Amino acid sequence: MAEVKLYKKLATYKDKNGEEKTATNFFVGCGDQLIPVEVKFFEDKETGADKNYRVRKTLLSAFAETLPERENSGNKKKAKDESAVDETSVGNSF
């Protein structure tokens, strides 16, 4: 049976006023797949608020591990550059 883990990743963004903010994105790791998870906002029809949204998000954050960085993130670009065909050697392959 595959192990299931909860991960979080912090990301920065700028809001509509140009202020830099931090967002927490959650993922469930199942085997070698990462599945994004969104904390649901249950809007109260009268007030428009969800008083338990922050509680749910804080609990997930407390139990989640930080998502490790990819090991091959720098190698992807290098491999792409190396796979490019050198135009001067195209006719000289025989």
Key features of this structure:
94 residues; four-stranded mixed β-sheet; alpha+beta; disordered C terminus; single chain
Q: What value does the Rg take, in angstroms?
A: 22 Å
Please give the order of strands in the largest beta sheet.
3-2-1-4
Give the uncertain stretches in residue-range form: 79-94
Q: What's the number of extended β-strand segments? A: 4
Element-by-element helix/strand order: EEEHEH
- Quaternary status of these chains? single chain
Portion in beta strands: 25-35%
Helix content: 10-25%
Structure overview:
The protein is 22% helix and 31% strand. It has helices at residues 53-63, 73-82; strands at 4-14, 20-30, 33-37, 65-66. The protein has a 4-stranded mixed sheet with strand order 3-2-1-4. It is flat and about 45 Å long.
Write the layout of secondary structure elements.
Elements: E1 4-14, E2 20-30, E3 33-37, H1 53-63, E4 65-66, H2 73-82
Parallel strand pairs: 1-4
Antiparallel strand pairs: 1-2, 2-3
Can you describe this structure in just a few lines?
The protein is of the alpha+beta class and 94 residues long.
